[in-house]
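Narrative summary of target 7.
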Amino acid sequence: MTDEDMSPQDSPRKHLLYVADPMCSWCYGFAPVIAGLADHFGDRLPVQLMMGGLRAGNTKPFTDDDKRTIGGHWRKVESATGQPFDFARMEARKGWVYDTEPACRAVVTMRLLHPAVALAYKARVQHAFYAEGRDTAADHVLADIAADMGLDREMFFAELITEEARRETQRDFLAAQKAGIRGFPALLAGDGEGRYILVTNGYRPLDGLPEALEKWLEAEPETE
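Modeled conformation, tokenized:
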């Protein structure tokens, strides 16, 4: 896979590109896996985030049928990954709009302001939504979560609603679509020269991933 526009950040060396949506349940399930990879590799193979926009711009209110369908998905994720879910709060929602654009934009905002904590912020947003039942489709809640992590709430909120944040978020969505990524989570390994290989498209456990990526990281670059 080759696409010079894939990464939202400058990538002069090998890195992991993680394409996700904070309000995607399988991405929530994958959160410990990507955190484990980030801890294992550190600066040797840094993780860069791209937001995919699972339900970005959705305007359809949550229905009882939606609750049953989504609840079924969440139970599969819970069973496969062990991640906690608050089903009661999800089922109690009435007329709620499942729009993932604000949460994606919040992660992009954190990436712009404090890239070193963007991955941790995304995980915190996911936990707030799935395990705590907080409304992460609301800008003020996303700013509250940033404040929970020690950031200036008003500064983050002001940046979150800027046109720059909206443009950068749309740029992520378009780049993911251009690369043909339709499902999340998607993890790719980039060689720093615009070439990417797909590590996984969909959930997979951590077992075996660090070892496989160590081999790729240590491999000599191919010659013409």
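The mean pLDDT is 93.
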